[in-house]
């Protein structure tokens, strides 16, 4: 993975919760905020700040105070990456009086329909939305279902930094049994991301930062995982057999490979049964106790 130069600006640890908050400069006026293994991104301009996922109430309060005291600007925009509650809590503590809150229409719809305890959006969009702050801008793009509802990419310019949460995870295995993942959509969205945007650095909501080469390697894993489980199911293998027999040595260096390989396989297997109805196909033999 290409090394990304970062500048540590601020670190505070709270002994009571064993939680540390860190701000790092990614490139130019774009920064990464970390709360444990969660990350968000913000951009500073002379017209104000653009912030992304609040993560939780304590993190949001800390970040707002840090932006005000360190950079001396108001928060003009707050954008949600998607609907999942572990990224959207605490928005009411991150906004200022004149902050515009932005979300994709499906993310906003889900938050409202489920009565989520979050700050709802002021502005929603369907395909794309661009926020401009002086000479800087952020383009939000929706590539279809991938993880959760209304999950979008955010392209920060002119720094040329991309922010994606959950459907691209660099330098680590996808999460456990892919809960909330649409494996078809993740492959398709990642392909579209690579084809439609030329970015220097990608920051994820978890794990590491990287470049387009790292994203391509991540996409290769998704395709290898999906194709391997599909072909094993077509050959009549059970889930247990797949978990025992399917190994991906070219990706075995990834953190959590040993712990989550079998769970990743189970997640794709579940998708093939629940979404693609492999258990109803006359050409596929699926034992009843396998789904």
TrEMBL record:
<feature type="domain" description="Metallo-beta-lactamase">
    <location>
        <begin position="38"/>
        <end position="206"/>
    </location>
</feature>
<dbReference type="InterPro" id="IPR001279">
    <property type="entry name" value="Metallo-B-lactamas"/>
</dbReference>
<feature type="signal peptide">
    <location>
        <begin position="1"/>
        <end position="18"/>
    </location>
</feature>
<keyword id="KW-0732">Signal</keyword>
<protein>
    <submittedName>
        <fullName>Metallo-beta-lactamase</fullName>
    </submittedName>
</protein>
<dbReference type="InterPro" id="IPR036866">
    <property type="entry name" value="RibonucZ/Hydroxyglut_hydro"/>
</dbReference>
